[in-house]
Amino acid sequence: MRLLSIFTIILATFPAALLAEIQVTARFNPPRIALGDRTQYVIEVSETSDRSQPEVERITSLPIPESNKLELRNGRTSKSQQTRIVNGAAEYSVTQSLIIDASAPGVGDFTIPAYTFEYKGQRLRVPAATLKVLERSADAGPSRDELIFLKADLPEKLYVGQMVALDLKLYVGEEAQLRGLNSFDRSADGFTISELPEDYREGVEMVKGRRYRTLTWPLTLTPIQTGEQALSFQFALTARLPGQNNNRDRFGRSPLGSSLFDDFFGRSERINVYTDALSIDVLPLPEEGQPESFSGAIGDIAMEVGTDSDTTAQGEPIMLSVVLKGSGNFERITGPSFADSDDWKHYDPETQFEPADSLGLTGSQRFDYVFVPQRPGKLSIPETRFSYFDPEQEEYVELTAPPIPVEVSPAKNNFSPTPPPPTRGTPEPDLQLSKALSSEEALLTLDYRPKEPRPVGYGILRSPVFIGLNILAGLLIAAGATLLYRNRRHRQDPRYALRAEAKQALKAARQGYLEALRADDAETFYKQGELAVRHAATVKTGRSMQSAESAQIEALLSGQAAEDCRAFFETANAHRFGGNAEKAYTDAQQQIERILKAL
Hints:
Elements: H1 2-18, E1 21-29, E2 32-34, E3 39-49, E4 71-86, E5 89-103, E6 108-112, E7 115-119, E8 122-126, E9 129-134, H2 144-147, E10 148-152, E11 157-159, E12 164-173, E13 177-187, E14 191-193, E15 201-207, E16 210-223, E17 227-241, H3 261-265, E18 267-274, E19 278-283, E20 294-307, E21 311-313, E22 318-328, E23 344-346, E24 350-355, E25 362-373, E26 377-381, E27 384-390, E28 395-401, E29 404-409, H4 439-444, H5 458-461, H6 464-492, H7 494-518, H8 522-541, H9 550-554, H10 559-578, H11 585-598
Helix pairs in contact: 6-7, 7-8, 8-10, 8-11, 10-11
Region (Disordered): 408-430
InterPro entries: BatD
Keywords: Membrane, Transmembrane, Transmembrane helix
């Protein structure tokens, strides 16, 4: 009985021993800022165990009280692990950090009170955290938000499906130095937005008396949901900023915790910049006055219609071309539709778009329809109708083209008549295939002995020329089959096609940075070197890595190659964004070669 009691106690305490100890902390980093600066609200959930590494349950949201008057945005998470061994005993710990950018509306103390949340079936308490905001002195330097900020000028309203251009513009004050762009993100559930292009426009602008270097990326924006739709854009970047805390006491100490050396040397930081809160009122397309031919086109469009011939024969195809020109959401435009007819059989069109700008907002879209006449005579290709919605005039516009007459001749018979069957009459006499032999002829046949047959063409088959021709024909057939196989895979396997294109581009990029090295052209060297690494990563993964972050490429590598990748991209970014005239190519070239070899 005593043994049973001990066993029961062990079973009761065993699950508790496996549970990791969980601690929750909350703080502002930094806890004191000057008015206009930003800080970070950081919640850390730490778990420790002496048995094994605790498993993290990802936290996606927290019930933070809204009565603190702070503006909280741009939440993100990070995770760190640690193992310590003291006197032979191991202790495992993992910390999940939730980081939220915070800004205050004025000076004073701002407190986020304590609250609770669910985690792994437990109710955990987040302690209160307080932020102190000080008045910025008149002689203080610009805040970080004044040195670097992001803007996107958007219209107040759009119609659902309307495609517009927008410029995303990064402002960098002349006191700051941009060292690299680490990542780009956007929050726009109610929109489709084009990918961030690799190239950008540089310029200089004056804002409130301060001189800024600007980097502008053109994008397209298309709303897909009606109502008030919010969106925002964000860059994670590395920049060198000057010291900003000039509000010091008589001993040269700053109430914000910086030193006199901040202003002299400056500091490099990894920071997040994002647009202010943006929203667009998305209107539905009006139902009143919507033509039957409307299929979703929005913009300002003209139509041209024509055929490749005005005569044909029954069963012979004729092509009808419809060209739509102007500006609009061409990626969503479909060609005019035609009703079925006893006179014509038509097929879905072939489509070709020729953009007139880099974003594809203006251009011409061509639809080629095949019409096949079903009878001879004077026929007409049906009337063509196409409509679109004009957002400027806020009305539908229907374009029409009249029927096109076509002269159709009878079908051409290019076959020979079948020869008539033989006439039936008196049956032909049977051929006498054998006859009786006389006794002398029968005796002569006894002396007949067949000879061994002589191989026909035996000498030709062993001829070197014949063998060589057969080998050549076999090689040609194999090469043709390989070419057909590759062409088929190009058409049917996008990953294979992407890898094949990347291999060719890799050769060109490698040749490019070697030529730039000989020409002492730093800008081209780093540009072509980056392209070579990205093409090699594309070949390895089968996914396009042209716009991937350097950290994604680094994740494909290990050891020295990973360190080379990080160092090369940091040097390239410093040259690209900081304008450093780096001429020491030897290390960079060796880094590229090691990266390419590892990939």
